[in-house]
Amino acid sequence: MAVVIYFSRAGQNKQHGAAQYINVGNTALVAGKLAAQLGCPAVDLQAIPAYAADYAATLQRTKTELAQAAAVQLAPLTVDLTAQTQFFLGFPIWWRTLPQVVVTFLQQVDLAGKQLYPFCTHEGSGFGRSLDALQKLAPQAQLLPGLAVRGSNAYKADQALINWLQSLQLK
Question: What is d(CA 164, CA 171) in angstroms, rounded to the nearest whole number?
Answer without folding.
Answer: 9
